[in-house]
UniProtKB/TrEMBL annotation:
The keyword Membrane applies. Residues 1-20 are annotated as: Disordered. The keyword Transmembrane helix applies. The chain crosses the membrane at residues 43-65. Keywords: Membrane, Transmembrane, Transmembrane helix. This is Uncharacterized protein. It comes from Actinoplanes hulinensis. Residues 8-20 have a biased composition (Basic and acidic residues).
Length: 66
């Protein structure tokens, strides 16, 4: 469906579609990395690491003592 006065867009090849999809994906990953590097985390990383260590230690303690 074309509008009057506007040329029909050229047909894209599969290679162009794949390339554009890869470029969009690459840009999204880049933005995510930049956002993560900026910090602004609600819970500090050290708190999450400590929580994980406590959970693993408790789990190991249950296995050893049972």
């Amino acid at each position: 469906m074309t509008t009057p006065g506007r040329p029909e867009p050229p047909e894209r090849s599969e290679r162009e579609v794949r390339f554009q999809r890869a470029e969009r994906r690459r840009e999204k990953i880049y933005r995510d990395i930049q956002r993560d590097r900026a910090g602004n985390h609600r819970i500090p990383t050290w708190v999450l690491a400590t929580l994980l260590a406590l959970i693993l230690a408790g789990w190991a303690c249950l296995i050893i003592t049972s």
